[in-house]
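User: Show me a protein chain along with its predicted structure.
Assistant: Here is one chain, sequence first, then structure tokens.
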Amino acid sequence: MPKFLNIVLVAAIICGSISCSSTKKGWKLAWKDEFNYTGLPDSSKWNYDVGGNGWGNNELQYYTKADTANAVVKNGKLIITALKQKKENNTYTSARLVTKHKGDWLYGRIEVKAKLPAGRGMWPAIWMLPTNWEYGGWPQSGEIDIMENVGYMPDSVFSSVHTKSFNHILHTQTTKGLYFNNLYTSFHVYAAEWYKDHIDFFVDNNRFLSFTNTGKGFAEWPFDKQFHLLLNVAVGGNWGGAKGVDETITGASMEIDYVRVYTQK
């Protein structure tokens, strides 16, 4: 039995007792990019995080700015590509797109349809960070990981929440994985529904993880401030590179069909 199949069975049991179908009822579309154009990502919606400083995780890539080799829209998809090429002191290039100051939200449903890049050492992510870091630096102001995958676990995706009290440094983070056999060949819809009192996580409209506001303050719930969305493909790093990096891989891409953000009516 695959290592994470038991997690799926747990999720299925949970879904038997709660609603696992997230409809658009009660939501209104507030922000979107359908990628129905060609060229660089829409500059009215996307910024770039740039550089190659390891990004706090000893990652190997340099994130470029407005380089179609690493981030381009074509054939109705946003394509983020990690390339094996030197840039400054880094051995790979990639892109990290952010909506900061162009798409910032307090509560809502954030939904991304994506196909993931294959390869040991690849670390694609769909996630959210605080826009203004009002409670302090990481992890005090929080992090919402809608989807992460590491290439040495080609059958698993994960959702997680990080706060001052609950984070991977302390080994207290709230996280759950799901098993799939087609992450690299098929598109899936990854989503989070963020409310004042909890955050629900979905894959293909199946809710499998919830994080609840305990009411004990920002150390456990910093999610009462605006957050923005990030899309990136990292290479290596503390988690992504835990089993090494396949150095024969270059041109591994995450394809995004759409990004849609809904707020409650």
